[in-house]
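Hallway conversation turned thread

IA: we were arguing at lunch whether anyone had actually written out Penicillin-insensitive murein endopeptidase end to end. Turns out nobody had. So, for the record, here is the sequence (353 residues) and right after it the structure tokens. Reply here if something looks off.
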Amino acid sequence: MRKIWTRMMKGAAAIAAFSMLVSALPQQAGAQELAKDLFGSHRLPAATKPQSIGFYSKGCFSGGVAIATDGPTWQAMRLSRNRRWGHPAMISLIEKFSRDAVQDGWPGLLLGDVSQPRGGPMLTGHASHQIGLDADIWFTPMPDRRLTPQERENMSAVSLIDPKTRRVIEKRWTPAHARLLKRAASYGEVERILVHPGIKKKLCDTVTGDRTWLRKIRPFWGHDYHFHIRIGCQPGSPDCKRQETVAAGEGCDKSLAWWFTEEPWRPNKNPDAPKARDVMTMASLPKACLAVLQAPDPVSLASVTYPGGGAATISKADPIAALAASGGLPAAASAFAPTPEIGVPVPFPRPVN
Ligand SMILES: [Zn+2]
């Protein structure tokens, strides 16, 4: 008995010494490393088949494509963030939406964040946008000129909401805003559109005729200078966790009235608590996300950039533009610059809607 006890004590001492050694080591790579650092460091997507894995706020995706920084009917903002990436269905939907919006009389889309190249938690901002199925669109219409990269970093969007009343600022709200949201809601893939409660209220109070689309317009914090489009899990993504179906009805009822009470706006009781993205390690994400991190890069940025304009195949390249587009910053890829032909098909077909 005594012998066993001594041996146990020796073992315990060894374990204690070992753990002291381990805790003295710097943070090791691997399961304990923060997922936002790992996903935030990839500049290109996982070159495997398109697949969303996990949930909008806890997951990743492979086979991502980027929307070009510029198209005939859109301009991407905040290029330095490199968040123009999404599931091909999301990216082609944005492109189609931008064309339809112009048909409706909107001057073109200013595009905010979609996802990082391989999704996952981000270094800053958003809890969601992790599986390539979320996109932010500005309420500010696209200007009639190309913004410079600097303007795209610094220009601020204009809020539609009076922070005191939490209602829409009448002189900023236009019927074109309502048409834009109606168009976004018209696509079968779109499950939810997040807007500030004041915007939902404005729609509830003013939309005439068909109101069924109001169901998809969901009140949420923020979203006073941009709206957020969320599409459903796409075919070929068995590990994509779908969101609960939105409640039936227009949502112009008690659930909306709650947003105009004090309760949703009370200050956070624990403002210093860390955000989920700041503590998420690879162990908290679906296992398949490790393979997404380790998957090879595509041959170039251009090969995975969706140029829009209905182009399904890409014509012969101007080699200088091709070089810039494949090796350069995302800003180098433009719908107006020829994209090199390298045998990787641009995502096609588009979703039917
Ligand atoms: Zn968003």
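OS: looked through it. The first strand starts at residue 51 and ends at 55.
IA: good, adding that to the notes. The two ends are 76 Å apart (CA to CA).
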